[in-house]
Design a protein that fits this description.
The chain is built from 28 helices and 18 strands. It has a 9-stranded mixed sheet with strand order 3-2-1-4-5-7-6-8-11, sandwiched between helices. Strand 2 (231-238), helix 15 and strand 3 form a beta-alpha-beta unit. The longest helix is centred in the last third of the chain and has 23 residues, at 627-649. It is elongated. 37% of the residues are buried.
Length: 650
């Protein structure tokens, strides 16, 4: 039976769960049985050896090492059960299955715990389905001699896909569409095709948001399709317990070391700390906050020397933390060594391209990536590509050891038009990237040339200065009933006793009817009036009074401080963004001075910013239609409307 047919047969067993579970819940109940049967079949030919070793070796660490060396196994079971034996005792089937699952070594036992297998057994037993399902799986031959690791992986992925897409609203949460993953992997591996096909190729792959393990599997399968003899190791970490269990089970189905799949929050604790990889892949949550990880992440940032040295994004979106994490997990480049270094591919929404102004955490992260030549390419995907969102998404390809021709450059690829319509919608997903589209996109990447869909840019195309433009503070002073009341309402005046307030009012009244366009002259006149009235003369009080009375007037003299420096008007303060391709001086003379001749730049406030203007890079000007054409169309429409009305009347 082919892998596809066997997968279909196993899927048909899920019909026994109809009425007990909703279709969206089939995976939780079925997948533990699939992996239990597969592990049983893998252990089958080694049962006697395992029994002997268990009897003589009580140290599990030593036992694990001996089983790896002698049998090539990464797990074991201490119980004498098989599904075939257990179905012979229907009365005790539920308890015996629990005991059977608990007999596995600790490194795989948690799969059943995360699936809450014990609850599943109870529910199936209470609905008289447990024996039927156990019998069905006992008849399913998943022995390695009949179903290879590659075929088992294909079966498992087929089942994961079927279970995931059974519920449109949750599919995208744990399952990245395969067409998007295949494109990411093809772009990731594109420069290494020669290396990967050589004898003795060894490659490591890592996913910090492993989900059900799909991106790891596709990357491995793609490498093995290029070189069946390549040695590929997989590692990952996943936060969701059920997804973690599925991923770990998928690794078992393919014969991988399951110890390299970890459960937990990658941002809070990197459980592969100190290890780097040839290829890193990830599809982190879009717009998911990182509040739960905040204390650890901030400490790592403040201490320095960690994953997040470039900066911290806003708390509401952790995508750029995963971007930095991947940089830290890429195998370091070795100077003068060919084929060294690591590459990474990550799927993100549009936010990391432009969110955050100059000096913000997001901008500083982009600055770090671009100035250190870590961004190789960014590909815009079609919308409506994912199961639970129709928003625009982008594949970022990172590389810490680019080929010479790509160094100091970043390629932007617009693949938004490369799609075909699905015959049936899967949640928000109604488009797919076909193999032909994928090949065309990878060709655009390989060609590394300027076209309508490909732009080759340099760091200077993404950087800018944010300059602060100041204008002089110009005030006119005139005491009127309105400004007098405003002055009396200021805090320094309001907190005085009534007699002092009366003297201040007397002083203000004495200068009514006069106007000043020079602040120093008005302050001097105000002090004299206060002194004559016997009012307080403190500097905070005088400042509060002139601020309340002063009114902006472009014809007034510029206000200066005690050193003669012109004071800026904070209400007129503005910022300008100057591209690196321009110069601050030339931009200012061209864009600011003609409109505001007395403006200046406060150089102490100048910041450097980076953004990736993807849409602007591919913008095409479309001139408006000629008025004659629009008029002709309106005349035609009017004629059609009149004709229709006449037809109705007749």
């Amino acid at each position: 039976m082919s892998a596809q047919a066997l997968g279909g047969f196993i899927w048909s067993i899920a019909d026994q769960m109809r009425g007990v579970y909703k279709p969206a819940q089939y995976g939780t109940a079925m997948l533990p049985f699939v992996i239990l049967r597969r592990m049983e079949c893998v252990l089958d030919e080694h049962r006697d050896e395992i029994t002997d070793l268990i009897a003589t070796q009580k140290n599990e660490t030593v036992l694990a090492a001996m089983l790896r060396k002698k049998c090539g196994l990464h797990f074991w079971n201490t119980k004498p059960y098989t599904l075939a034996k257990l179905k012979g005792d229907p009365e005790n089937l539920r308890e015996n299955l629990r005991d059977y699952a608990a007999g596995f070594s600790a490194n795989v036992r948690d799969i059943f715990e995360k699936f809450e297998f014990s609850k599943t057994l109870t529910r199936l037993d209470e609905h008289d389905r447990l024996l039927l399902i156990t019998e069905a799986f006992a008849k399913t031959d998943l022995h390695p001699s009949k179903v290879s690791n590659a075929d088992m992986g294909e079966i498992f992925e087929h089942l994961i896909f079927k279970f995931s897409t059974a519920s449109n609203e949750t599919a995208g949460e744990h399952f990245t569409p395969r067409d998007a993953v295949h494109l990411l992997v093809d772009l990731l591996l594109a420069p290494d095709s020669d290396l990967l096909t050589t004898a003795g190729a060894v490659r490591s792959i890592y996913d910090p948001t492993a989900g059900t393990g799909g991106m790891l599997s596709v990357t491995e399968n793609t490498i093995l399709a290029m070189n069946p003899h390549a040695s590929v190791t997989l590692a990952g970490q996943e936060l969701n317990p059920e997804s973690y269990a599925i991923c770990k089970a998928d690794m078992i189905s393919k014969g991988h070391d399951v110890d390299s799949i970890k459960l937990g929050d990658t941002l809070a604790k990197d459980q592969h700390d100190g290890t780097t990889f040839d290829y890193c892949v990830s599809n982190p949550p879009y717009g998911g906050d990182w509040k739960a990880s905040e204390p650890v992440v901030r400490k790592e940032y403040n201490d320095g020397g960690g994953r997040f040295d470039a900066g911290l994004p806003r708390i509401s979106d952790g995508q750029m933390l995963f971007l930095q994490h991947l940089v830290a997990k890429m195998r370091p480049a070795t100077s003068g060594t060919a084929n060294s270094g690591g590459r990474a591919g990550i799927v993100l929404n549009g936010s990391p391209l432009f969110t955050g102004g100059a000096g913000s955490g997001e901008s500083e992260i982009r600055r770090h990536l671009i100035e250190n030549d870590l961004v190789d390419a960014i590909v815009a995907l079609p919308t409506n590509m994912f199961y639970n969102t129709g928003i625009a998404t982008y594949i970022w390809i990172l590389d810490n050891h680019k080929p010479i021709e790509r160094r100091g450059k970043i390629q932007l690829i617009d693949a938004t038009a490369r799609w075909a319509k699905l015959r049936k919608n899967l949640g928000s997903k109604n488009r797919e990237i076909t193999e032909a589209h994928r090949a065309a996109i990878v060709t655009l990447y390989d060609d590394f040339a300027e076209t309508e869909e490909s732009k080759i840019l340099e760091p200077a195309d993404f950087g800018y200065w944010e300059i602060t433009v100041e204008q002089p503070l110009r005030l006119r002073f005139e005491v009127t009933p309105a400004t007098e009341e405003a002055a009396m309402a200021t805090k320094p005046v309001a907190k005085l006793d009534e007699s002092d307030q009366a003297t201040i009012r007397t002083a203000l009244t004495s200068v009514e009817g006069k106007s000043w366009t020079n602040r120093d002259e008005f302050v001097e006149a105000l002090r004299l009036a206060l002194k004559a009235a016997g009012a307080p003369l403190g500097a905070p009080l005088v400042k509060a009074l002139w601020q309340a009375i002063g009114d902006r007037d472009e014809s007034a003299d510029a206000c200066t401080d005690s050193k003669g420096n012109v004071e800026p008007d904070t209400d007129l303060r503005d910022t300008e963004l100057v591209p690196f391709r321009d110069s601050i001086e030339a931009y200012f003379e061209r864009e600011v001075t003609p409109h505001v001749p007395d403006a200046w730049i406060d150089e102490t406030k100048t910041k450097v910013g980076y953004e990736i203007p993807f849409t602007r890079s591919f913008y095409k000007y479309v001139p408006p239609r000629p008025l004659e054409e629009i008029d002709a169309e309106l005349d035609q429409l009017a004629a059609e409307i009149i004709e229709l009305l006449q037809a109705v009347e007749s």
